[in-house]
Protein backbone atom coordinates (compact mmCIF):
# COMPACT_ATOMS: atom_id res chain seq x y z
CA UNK A 1 0.00 0.00 0.00
CA UNK A 2 1.38 3.41 -0.94
CA UNK A 3 0.50 7.04 -0.62
CA UNK A 4 2.68 10.11 -0.90
CA UNK A 5 4.07 9.92 2.62
CA UNK A 6 3.58 6.38 3.98
CA UNK A 7 3.97 2.93 2.52
CA UNK A 8 3.65 -0.60 3.83
CA UNK A 9 6.62 -2.47 2.42
CA UNK A 10 9.41 -4.92 3.12
CA UNK A 11 12.70 -3.47 4.39
CA UNK A 12 15.92 -4.99 5.53
CA UNK A 13 16.86 -3.82 9.01
CA UNK A 14 20.59 -4.25 9.46
CA UNK A 15 23.82 -2.65 10.67
CA UNK A 16 26.68 -1.51 8.44
CA UNK A 17 30.35 -2.30 8.73
CA UNK A 18 33.13 0.02 7.69
CA UNK A 19 35.57 -1.59 5.28
CA UNK A 20 39.12 -0.52 4.49
CA UNK A 21 39.16 2.83 2.79
CA UNK A 22 36.05 3.97 4.65
CA UNK A 23 33.56 2.10 2.46
CA UNK A 24 30.31 1.07 4.15
CA UNK A 25 28.75 -2.36 3.64
CA UNK A 26 25.36 -3.39 5.03
CA UNK A 27 25.27 -6.78 6.74
CA UNK A 28 22.44 -8.05 4.55
CA UNK A 29 23.30 -11.74 4.86
CA UNK A 30 22.36 -12.15 8.53
CA UNK A 31 19.36 -9.83 8.66
CA UNK A 32 16.09 -10.82 6.93
CA UNK A 33 13.55 -8.51 5.33
CA UNK A 34 10.89 -7.27 7.73
CA UNK A 35 7.40 -5.95 7.08
CA UNK A 36 7.44 -2.23 7.89
CA UNK A 37 5.49 0.98 7.60
CA UNK A 38 7.78 3.55 6.01
CA UNK A 39 7.41 7.29 6.65
CA UNK A 40 9.15 8.73 3.59
CA UNK A 41 8.85 12.31 4.77
CA UNK A 42 10.62 11.74 8.11
CA UNK A 43 12.87 8.88 6.85
CA UNK A 44 12.02 6.24 9.42
CA UNK A 45 10.32 2.85 9.40
CA UNK A 46 8.27 0.98 11.97
CA UNK A 47 8.79 -2.79 12.12
CA UNK A 48 5.26 -4.23 12.08
CA UNK A 49 6.03 -7.26 14.28
CA UNK A 50 8.05 -5.50 16.99
CA UNK A 51 6.45 -2.02 16.78
CA UNK A 52 9.80 -0.21 17.02
CA UNK A 53 11.30 2.40 14.71
CA UNK A 54 14.49 2.54 12.67
CA UNK A 55 16.02 5.34 10.64
CA UNK A 56 15.57 4.77 6.91
CA UNK A 57 18.63 5.07 4.68
CA UNK A 58 17.99 5.54 0.96
CA UNK A 59 20.20 3.27 -1.10
CA UNK A 60 20.33 1.76 -4.53
CA UNK A 61 21.81 -1.71 -4.91
CA UNK A 62 25.31 -0.28 -4.59
CA UNK A 63 25.20 3.41 -3.75
CA UNK A 64 23.81 5.65 -1.04
CA UNK A 65 21.53 8.36 -2.30
CA UNK A 66 21.77 12.06 -1.43
CA UNK A 67 24.60 11.75 1.10
CA UNK A 68 22.79 9.19 3.27
CA UNK A 69 26.10 7.50 4.19
CA UNK A 70 26.94 10.41 6.49
CA UNK A 71 24.11 9.34 8.84
CA UNK A 72 25.46 5.85 9.53
CA UNK A 73 26.88 5.06 12.99
CA UNK A 74 28.64 1.89 14.12
CA UNK A 75 26.55 -0.87 15.72
CA UNK A 76 23.28 0.82 14.79
CA UNK A 77 20.66 -0.87 12.61
CA UNK A 78 18.97 0.96 9.73
CA UNK A 79 16.05 0.17 7.45
CA UNK A 80 17.19 -0.17 3.82
CA UNK A 81 16.32 -1.67 0.43
CA UNK A 82 12.56 -1.17 0.06
CA UNK A 83 10.63 -4.02 -1.59
CA UNK A 84 7.01 -3.77 -2.66
CA UNK A 85 4.47 -5.99 -0.86
CA UNK A 86 3.85 -8.05 -3.99
CA UNK A 87 7.42 -9.37 -3.97
CA UNK A 88 7.24 -11.18 -0.61
CA UNK A 89 3.49 -11.10 0.01
CA UNK A 90 1.63 -10.34 3.23
CA UNK A 91 -0.98 -12.21 5.25
CA UNK A 92 -4.20 -10.60 6.46
CA UNK A 93 -3.14 -10.49 10.14
CA UNK A 94 0.13 -8.68 9.33
CA UNK A 95 -1.76 -6.30 7.02
CA UNK A 96 -4.10 -5.49 9.92
CA UNK A 97 -1.11 -4.80 12.23
CA UNK A 98 0.47 -2.60 9.56
CA UNK A 99 -2.73 -0.59 9.12
CA UNK A 100 -2.94 -0.06 12.89
CA UNK A 101 0.62 1.33 12.86
CA UNK A 102 -0.25 3.49 9.86
CA UNK A 103 -3.22 4.95 11.74
CA UNK A 104 -1.05 5.55 14.83
CA UNK A 105 1.50 7.41 12.69
CA UNK A 106 -1.22 9.56 11.14
CA UNK A 107 -2.38 10.41 14.67
CA UNK A 108 1.10 11.54 15.70
CA UNK A 109 2.05 8.45 17.73
CA UNK A 110 5.73 8.14 18.69
CA UNK A 111 7.49 4.76 18.53
CA UNK A 112 10.43 3.41 20.55
CA UNK A 113 13.80 3.37 18.80
CA UNK A 114 14.69 -0.20 17.84
CA UNK A 115 18.38 0.38 18.52
CA UNK A 116 17.86 0.18 22.29
CA UNK A 117 18.96 -3.47 22.08
CA UNK A 118 22.24 -4.78 20.66
CA UNK A 119 22.56 -6.37 17.23
CA UNK A 120 23.08 -9.76 18.91
CA UNK A 121 19.88 -9.39 20.96
CA UNK A 122 18.02 -8.30 17.82
CA UNK A 123 19.18 -11.36 15.87
CA UNK A 124 18.17 -13.60 18.77
CA UNK A 125 14.72 -11.96 18.80
CA UNK A 126 14.34 -12.43 15.02
CA UNK A 127 15.48 -16.07 15.17
CA UNK A 128 13.09 -16.82 18.07
CA UNK A 129 10.24 -15.16 16.22
CA UNK A 130 10.90 -17.27 13.11
CA UNK A 131 11.24 -20.48 15.16
CA UNK A 132 7.93 -19.84 16.91
CA UNK A 133 6.18 -19.52 13.53
CA UNK A 134 7.08 -23.08 12.59
CA UNK A 135 4.42 -25.39 13.90
CA UNK A 136 4.90 -29.14 14.11
CA UNK A 137 1.89 -31.21 13.28
CA UNK A 138 1.44 -34.30 15.46
CA UNK A 139 -0.12 -37.43 13.99
Give a topology summary.
Elements: E1 6-18, E2 24-26, E3 33-39, E4 44-47, E5 53-55, E6 77-83, H1 85-88, H2 92-106, H3 119-133
Antiparallel strand pairs: 1-2, 1-3, 1-6, 3-4, 4-5
Task: Describe what you observe in this structure.
- The chain has 139 residues and is of the alpha+beta class.
- The protein has helices spanning 85-88, 92-106, 119-133, and strands at residues 6-18, 24-26, 33-39, 44-47, 53-55, 77-83.
- Strands 1, 2, 3, 4, 5 and 6 form a 6-stranded antiparallel sheet that branches.
- β4 (44-47) and β5 form a beta hairpin.
What's the quick description here?
The protein is of the alpha+beta class and 139 residues long.
Which descriptors would you attach to this protein?
139 residues; alpha+beta; six-stranded antiparallel beta sheet; 3 helices; 24% helix; globular
